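User: I'm writing a short methods note and want a consistent example. For Serine hydrolase domain-containing protein, I'll paste the sequence; you return only the structure tokens, no commentary, since I'll be parsing the reply automatically.
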Amino acid sequence: MKTKLTALAAAAGIAAATVLGAAPALAGTAYDVPGPGEQLTPETIDAYLGDVMDATGQPGMAVAVTRGDDIVHTAGYGHDSTGAPVTAETPMRIASVTKSFTAMAVMTLVQDGAIDLDGTVAGQLPGFAMDDPRAGEITVRHLLNQTSGFSDTTIDVEGLRDASSLSGYMSLLEAGSLAADPGTDYRYCNVNFEVAARLVEVASGRPFAAYMREAVFDPLGMDHSTLDEAEITPANGLNSVYGVWVSRPELTGFLNFNGAGGIITDAADMGRWLLAHTGDRAPVDRDLLDIMYAPSEVDDYAMGWSPEPLPGGGELMMHSGNLFTYSAIQGFSPETGYGFAVLTNGAALADATYPVLLGLAALSEGRQPEAPGSGRAMTDAALAAGAVVAVGLGATGVARSGRWALKRAGRPAWRTALRMVPVLLPVALFALYPTAIEVLSNGREVTWEQMTYFPLPLTLTLGAAAAAGLATAGSRLVRMARVGSRT
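Assistant:
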């Protein structure tokens, strides 16, 4: 037995070393940070991102850095799933970063008097109704602050994806209910911003994508941004599977609508978008921008933005976005006037965009960023090793099942059943896997299909453990039946 376990450990170590070798962690580098009164340079940004790409093994990444009314740098690094180089003009999905754009579109209509921010949604959106009388109290501000009471736990969000339009989405929403009284609790739920998108359509008399183009994209010069895949179709993103990047088409159910996560853009256009927040180019007045950045009475979340304290003091207003093959994050510092956007075409269990944004913020403040890490490689290595161990233990359990059955011949059935519990625990865990993730995600809806994307290494490892448990239990039962027939 000791020899077998030693062999398993060696195999697990080889698996871990193979994955870790794919993305080595680099020691910290002393970057040429700006001094007092100086500005971060493109050369420093490129040096830092070059180290990041080496350390994290990301397939492709694009960034934008702004300060005040100036775009400091936009650039791309790595490649897309077709092998083409990523540039500042490579189209990327930005997922929930879309929410700040939707909030901006709403605020342009608030400024024009077409939407009442503190008026009820029901009073401004014909056809909005739910199987909950409290829905009549939801205001537009509640939607943008995510304090409406909408929740994945009380709304069939998967069923809503069957709608073919935002108006159809409203019809399917009628069967849902609220998880809390409007304005009393923060719950992150995409429904808020889909309803806001439909409100924009009704208030403007234009399709949401067309109004976003007219009121937000065009005024900011964002000529390569869209909500329509017929205009711009990004290459497939990638998932990290035990250290190997695999091209995957995005889950189509998350591309049907626009307000919560549908924007396709590039780093160059994200730089122009950031100027609306770091400079003086916003399509709404300053007082409305201040409202967008202000937290609600019940949570720090504002209107597509959240404050994030920085290690060196101060804070960034931020929002991240994660689909199943693309990730993005944006942030700006009200204190320094710098803005940052990080877009990547790879999604893994360990996100790379957040630490990169913090690293850029550190550089902009004259601080050395933390050394680029290899969290993805370490996570994948641990899971690969776990899968090897699970398969090995399953094979050992099957091989030793005859001896196990002989030792328990004639013993009470309940004692034998208890000895089967440990090997079946992985089976129970795997069966409850999506539900457990939902609980850890504060009730956000999770499906088995979603678990086959960026969480795939974890899914495969848990599946291997469950299969090993089933094989061991099944073999033991067969062996016990044979022993019983002979006696």
